[in-house]
Amino acid sequence: MISAFSRLLLLLVFTTLLTGHLRGAEDDAGSIFIEGYTNQLSYQPGEKIRLHLSSSEPQYSIEITRLGAEDKTVFKETRKNGIAYPVPEDASSNGCQWPAAFELTIPDSWASGYYSVRLGVRDRGGKFIQRNTRSAESSLFFIIRPKQPGSETKILIQLSTNTYNAYNNWGGSSLYSYHGRNHLQGHRVSFDRPLAGQFSNWEYPFIAWAEQNGYQLDYAANSDLEFHPELLKHYKLVLSVGHDEYWSAPMRDHLEEYIRQGGNVAFFSGNSVCWQVRSEDAGRALTCWKQWYNQDPVFPTDDHSTLTTLWSHHLVNRPENQLTGVGFLYGGYHKSHGQFMDGAGAYRVHRPEHWIFAKTGIKQGDEFGSKDTIVGYECDGCQFVLQDGLPVPTFKDGTPKTFQILATCPAKWAPGDSLWYDRFEKDRVGAAVLGMYTNGGTVLTVGSTDWAHGLRGKDPIVQQITKNVLDRLSQ
């Protein structure tokens, strides 16, 4: 018989061995990592970029590549100062607070663009044979603004970096509950944490197509419209592509003034300018209370102009239609969220004589874009009635008086979306609206997030319309 002491001793030994084995297995399977973020979203050549990194291995690699029609790697280096840092409990809202591990002054030769940074580590000390050597990678990005804005091109694309952050749940929460910690929705999101973004789904195919077709673009972040509005005066045309959902009041103020002064804007995007955000920490964090607007500190005040909820909410009373011509209240989903799942994903043309349809050969009633489902995911529209069989805006929803509807596709809110907004007409069928207005400058909107998918698929009509817009509005 084994004594109680012996049994205890054996239990301790067994537990130690088992724990050690499990820890070793865990280490072998998943403890190797490297992650990071930049200290700014965008830079100009001559400015210093700082990477804030956390790494399980002291040695790591950095590879920086400009993404476009041809991806160009501009920097490679291996360093040995990697250190693992803890992730604060409030990292998603207040950042990681990791120190800078890498600094680089951006050369003048680096063109304006979107730069992907690939980070890599391999297993410590080579303690496994080569075929079992483990590695890990992650990526982050930064944007380079032009050193001399507008000197090489008159087209500026501002990337949807606010939306990237709104959907980022790294470290706990995003501005959505479906993938937040404990399914809780955050109301403040920090840029001081790893951020992958949504660039590859919408902006990348647009940019690759543009460069392949001889269009040069200058680049900026969403927040540059707020913090560097002096950029705008150097351009004839500003682009919004894909999913450009979260905008601050200064962003809108500066772009609307740009339009009044004769600047042109093309929203090759949908769900655009839907939610108002407030920038905090000099642009390193965003606040948005969304459907919980009554918890926003602005709510009890007499001034709701910066209340962080829908721009179209009656308390804010500044519908996105006033800027874009269309809005999400009169749009919704197509082939998404259970709405029009058997839809064509295509626009039906109403006014083929308009100049954007030049050289397409398209006729009234024709549809285009179904092959690549260019009407998909989230859509924006406006209130309209039919006159002589053609849609005409009512102008009751903020849509500018000169707005003309050129093409449409049915869209609808999902059933649960309207539960919190007491002034939304439930079960209303809206539309993705492709249209245009002029108010000093000209503003085009396509009313769909997925327009760029038609460029990726080389749809001839989508390509020709895009060329017509870029050629005319950049002059």
Automatic annotation (TrEMBL):
Keywords, ordered alphabetically: Hydrolase, Signal
SUPFAM superfamilies (alphabetical): Class I glutamine amidotransferase-like
GO terms of molecular function: N,N-dimethylformamidase activity
Leader sequence segment: 1-24
Enzyme class: hydrolase
Gene3D superfamilies: 3.40.50.880
InterPro entries according to UniProt: Class_I_gatase-like, DMFA2_C
Domain of life assignment: Bacteria
EC number(s) recorded for this UniProt protein: 3.5.1.56
Name of the protein: N,N-dimethylformamidase beta subunit
Organism of provenance: Gimesia panareensis
